Amino acid sequence: MLAEKKERIIMGIDPGTAIMGYGIVLEKGTKIELISLGIVRMDHLDDHFLKLQRIFEKTIALIDEYKPDVLAIEAPFYGKNIQVMLKLGRAQGIAMAAALSRNISVTEYAPRKIKQSITGKGTASKEQVAAMLQRLLNFKETPEFLDATDGLAVAVCHSFQRISTSNTGKSYSGWDAFVKDNKKRIK
């Protein structure tokens, strides 16, 4: 059996087309330390493709600055508005592409799974998730937007999965693995 790395940096992203939240944690064994959290604003941009470009560039900049070992990302939830779902899926895909372009593995988690792992309740509110993260990681300042703590929650969720035996997230170690697992989606 291969010895697991003692430390790893996990970057979590809550994709969005108006605001993207992110959180970065350092995992040392079973302990987690907050490195950074924040948001990337795109609500001032009118063009959807400019928003996607900003997501890609900011994700690459975060990767280059913090050198994460893995990207954990929130999967789009099912909604009634197909146009919103399409835009969110594109935002998620762009962030995933940025990580994969730097050979960083990607794991995605359903919103319910993230909330469940942080609070013990899959229907928890954003405020409940943020409050639990503040207790877990000992930070006092309240982020301007809950999108930042949503991104942080994805990173913490991923860390918790290492301990758990029921990892239901999808992981890809690079483009080849993604393509192999998604042949029907690629033309």
UniProtKB/TrEMBL annotation:
<dbReference type="InterPro" id="IPR002176">
    <property type="entry name" value="X-over_junc_endoDNase_RuvC"/>
</dbReference>
<dbReference type="GO" id="GO:0048476">
    <property type="term" value="C:Holliday junction resolvase complex"/>
</dbReference>
<feature type="binding site">
    <location>
        <position position="74"/>
    </location>
    <ligand>
        <name>Mg(2+) 2</name>
    </ligand>
</feature>
<keyword id="KW-0540">Nuclease</keyword>
<feature type="binding site">
    <location>
        <position position="147"/>
    </location>
    <ligand>
        <name>Mg(2+) 1</name>
    </ligand>
</feature>
<keyword id="KW-0460">Magnesium</keyword>
<dbReference type="GO" id="GO:0006310">
    <property type="term" value="P:DNA recombination"/>
</dbReference>
<dbReference type="InterPro" id="IPR012337">
    <property type="entry name" value="RNaseH-like_sf"/>
</dbReference>
<comment type="function">
    <text>The RuvA-RuvB-RuvC complex processes Holliday junction (HJ) DNA during genetic recombination and DNA repair. Endonuclease that resolves HJ intermediates. Cleaves cruciform DNA by making single-stranded nicks across the HJ at symmetrical positions within the homologous arms, yielding a 5'-phosphate and a 3'-hydroxyl group; requires a central core of homology in the junction. The consensus cleavage sequence is 5'-(A/T)TT(C/G)-3'. Cleavage occurs on the 3'-side of the TT dinucleotide at the point of strand exchange.</text>
</comment>
<comment type="similarity">
    <text>Belongs to the RuvC family.</text>
</comment>
<feature type="binding site">
    <location>
        <position position="14"/>
    </location>
    <ligand>
        <name>Mg(2+) 1</name>
    </ligand>
</feature>
<dbReference type="InterPro" id="IPR020563">
    <property type="entry name" value="X-over_junc_endoDNase_Mg_BS"/>
</dbReference>
<keyword id="KW-0479">Metal-binding</keyword>
<feature type="active site">
    <location>
        <position position="147"/>
    </location>
</feature>
<feature type="active site">
    <location>
        <position position="74"/>
    </location>
</feature>
<dbReference type="Pfam" id="PF02075">
    <property type="entry name" value="RuvC"/>
</dbReference>
<keyword id="KW-0255">Endonuclease</keyword>
<dbReference type="GO" id="GO:0003677">
    <property type="term" value="F:DNA binding"/>
</dbReference>
<dbReference type="GO" id="GO:0005737">
    <property type="term" value="C:cytoplasm"/>
</dbReference>
<dbReference type="GO" id="GO:0006281">
    <property type="term" value="P:DNA repair"/>
</dbReference>
<dbReference type="InterPro" id="IPR036397">
    <property type="entry name" value="RNaseH_sf"/>
</dbReference>
<protein>
    <recommendedName>
        <fullName>Crossover junction endodeoxyribonuclease RuvC</fullName>
        <ecNumber>3.1.21.10</ecNumber>
    </recommendedName>
</protein>
<comment type="subunit">
    <text>Homodimer which binds Holliday junction (HJ) DNA. The HJ becomes 2-fold symmetrical on binding to RuvC with unstacked arms; it has a different conformation from HJ DNA in complex with RuvA. In the full resolvosome a probable DNA-RuvA(4)-RuvB(12)-RuvC(2) complex forms which resolves the HJ.</text>
</comment>
<keyword id="KW-0238">DNA-binding</keyword>
<keyword id="KW-0963">Cytoplasm</keyword>
<keyword id="KW-0227">DNA damage</keyword>
<dbReference type="GO" id="GO:0000287">
    <property type="term" value="F:magnesium ion binding"/>
</dbReference>
<feature type="active site">
    <location>
        <position position="14"/>
    </location>
</feature>
<keyword id="KW-0234">DNA repair</keyword>
<dbReference type="GO" id="GO:0008821">
    <property type="term" value="F:crossover junction DNA endonuclease activity"/>
</dbReference>
<keyword id="KW-0233">DNA recombination</keyword>
<keyword id="KW-0378">Hydrolase</keyword>
